[in-house]
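On clarity, I found the account of how folds are encoded harder to follow than it need be. What matters is that the chain and its backbone geometry are given together, residue for residue. I therefore recommend that a typical entry be quoted early in the introduction. An entry of this sort, consisting of the sequence and the corresponding backbone structure tokens, reads as follows:
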Amino acid sequence: MMILVVVVIGIGGAAGVLRAADARTSDVERIDGLDAILADLPGDDAEYPAENYLLVGSDSREGIVAGSDDYAYVGDADVVGGKRSDTIMILHQERNGGAALMSLPRDLWVEIAGTGESQRINSAYNDGPERLAATVSQSLGIPIHHYVEVDFLGFKDIVDRIGGVQVCVYKAARDVHSGLNLQPGCQSLNGDMALAYARSRYYEEWDGSDWAMDPRADLGRIERQQFFIREAVNGLLHDIESSPFSAGDTIRAVTESVRIDPRLDPIKAAQALRQAAQQGLHTYALPVYNDTVGDAAVLRLGDDADSLLAYFRGEGPAPTQFETTTDPAPEAQAEASGSA
């Protein structure tokens, strides 16, 4: 996730850390063909000088072989060939201000740019990052200034390099499809379990007598992903500020795992987002409703979605009614704090 990337690179104040990061980011893979899609960067005199990052989590199984630990969690290229967009988010960074994150449900029904046809939004990625970025811009009216992509293996590696991420749950939870298995209370998730948590669409909790499925499916997954990112950012801020030079391995993992647009300067972006991360990352849920198209279950934008989209377009204030909760398991967190 881009917010993890930029915090890792930008939070260390030591000059040596920035020099090392600068040397490594020169090797980050760049995606050609996005220049004509991305919006012009706002100038210093812009009325609302904010930038939007389109963040994409790819479900590519490239590099995973049968019999490996990774295969047990996500399979290999024979299970799912090529790449698909498993997660789509927009990170909105106000200059000298805060940062906000909005997730786009992958079943959101929109017109796919350049096709004249409507499909689920994640299908736009089948034709590449250019089609997805254009679809987000045209269908939702949100200017996209930068593009960042990370795949399954990259996500796992980043989490392992930062020493895991703490997640608290009030009840035992599982997902037999993703491999998730959590006990009540707070625990540090390694890369494998973090991926299982972030991918979970069949999330179940033990109610004392049986397993109860989260009926929200992908919408529940979005809430958990946002919570996970907030916890990861908070942990990174604490760990890297207390020991800046420990960021070297994490920077290496990040630069080996992401693909970005040609004009994105990771160091400049990291420094701009550093203050925003310290102020706190605000996350938002896009209001949608269930619908069907033929035999397909899809999501459509709710009537009140435009007020949230307006904020990400730079046309209005953040609507607080769509801000997601800071902790989906407050009882577990309180219990952990009380026993510390």
